[in-house]
Design a protein that fits this description.
It comes from Limnohabitans parvus II-B4. This is Stress responsive protein. InterPro entries: Dabb (IPR013097), Dimeric_a/b-barrel (IPR011008). The protein is an alpha+beta fold. The protein has one domain: 2-Layer Sandwich (Alpha-Beta Plaits), CATH 3.30.70.100. The strands form 2 sheets. It has a 4-stranded antiparallel beta sheet with strand order 4-5-1-6. Strands 2-3 form a two-stranded antiparallel sheet.
């Protein structure tokens, strides 16, 4: 199994909208990809809780059967279609993939 974690910080303003608006849109777009390929076991998207000491605005946590499922997800047309918006609104992105025993 592979765990895929991505964390983003968004620009205060981008694509004609403020951070809060773009966070909601980014979350909705990511959630629309939750079942695009078989083999995705866990798919969670969350935004930082106001008032908490958070270092990132948005997180995606996935648990997948294997690296082939991750590759299929990353190359799926529905996922590829959200990348331009994400690139436009994201200030910083961090990602980690690792094997789960």
């Amino acid at each position: 199994m592979i765990r895929h974690i991505v964390m983003w910080n968004l620009h205060d303003q981008a694509e004609g909208a403020d951070k809060a608006t773009n966070l909601l849109k980014a979350k909705e777009l990511l959630l629309s990809c939750a079942q695009v390929v078989p083999g995705i076991r866990t798919f969670e998207v969350a935004t930082a809780t106001p008032g908490m000491d958070c270092t990132n605005d948005l997180v995606l946590h996935m648990l997948l059967d294997d690296a082939q499922v991750l590759a299929a997800y990353q190359n799926h047309p529905q996922h590829v279609a959200i990348k331009p918006f994400m690139k436009a609104v994201v200030q910083e992105r961090r990602c980690m993939d690792f094997n789960v025993d």
